[in-house]
């Protein structure tokens, strides 16, 4: 019974570390996406400002 509990605890710890790594990767992806969207938005607004002075 103790071996089962130890194996279970080990799997829980491994799962927690995998979850943390995936969370960090997801956060990085969201930051990169937000940067790309804001940069694209600034480019679009810049183009509109340049095209519509009249």
TrEMBL record:
What residue intervals traverse the membrane? 6-23
**One example of a Gene Ontology biological process annotation:** positive regulation of insulin secretion
Lineage: superkingdom:
Eukaryota
Q: Which InterPro entries match?
A: Neuronatin (IPR024885)
Q: GO cellular component terms? A: cytoplasm
Report whether Transmembrane helix shows up as a keyword of the record. Answer: yes
Keywords (alphabetical) are: Developmental protein, Membrane, Transmembrane, Transmembrane helix
Q: Record's family?
A: Belongs to the neuronatin family.
| Name listed for the protein in its UniProt record | Neuronatin
Q: What is the lineage of its organism?
A: Eukaryota, Metazoa, Chordata, Craniata, Vertebrata
């Amino acid at each position: 019974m103790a071996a089962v509990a130890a194996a279970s605890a080990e799997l829980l710890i491994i799962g927690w570390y995998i979850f943390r790594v995936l969370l960090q990767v997801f956060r990085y992806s969201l930051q990169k996406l937000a940067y790309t969207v804001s940069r694209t938005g600034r480019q679009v607004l810049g183009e509109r400002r340049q095209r519509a002075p009249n």
